[in-house]
Amino acid sequence: MLEARYHVYDSAVLDAPIEEAWRELRDVVKLLPVVFGDAVKDYRYVDGGSAEKIPSRFEFTLHPSGEKAQEEVVARSETEHSLTYRLLGQVLGIEGYIATYRLRRITTEPGKTFIEWPREFGVAAGHDPATVVPSIAALTAKEVATIKEYFAKRRRST
Question: So what's the pLDDT on residue 158?
Fold first, then answer.
């Protein structure tokens, strides 16, 4: 039996040159507090993982629910400025989650970077796709908007 797969996508233009943005975003564990703020805690690499090792597992706890998530970086390209990671198990009513965020240089606007963040996932048994899918789409949009604001604030403070 085929299981339904869902796709969500969001993108933004960051107010930072690609080299600066990539320095901040290439380590997914450092990205977690940027996109989630106080909504995550105890984020760290596990099982000997690190920003320099592929594959690398990492985990974090969602606050206030206390739900733990374990994910794994499965690919990173320094030349393509992209990172792919997947969810191990399920969290937030999803499973089989895989995502890749990519940065692209904007050649017509030096000092700006395009970020795109497509995600694919299934809805875990016992959860309603009509609730879960819009929730994940909204979370994706919020994360991208948060990254955009993060770089805008950095630019304003310099």
Answer: 59
Residue 53 has φ and ψ, to the nearest 5°, of -110, 130
Q: What does the alpha-carbon distance between residue 38 and residue 32 come to, in Å, rounded to a whole number?
A: 10
| Sequence-distant (≥ 6) Cβ neighbours of residue 2 within 8 angstroms | none
Residues of the chain with pLDDT under 70: 1-2, 156-158
Q: Name which of 56, 51, 57 is nearest 26 in CA terms.
A: 51
CB of 147 closer than 8 Å to CB of 14: yes
Q: Which residues 6+ apart lie within 8 Å of 76 measured at CB?
A: 26, 54, 82, 83, 84
Structure tokens given for 10: 């969001």
The amino acid present at 116, given as its one-letter code, is E
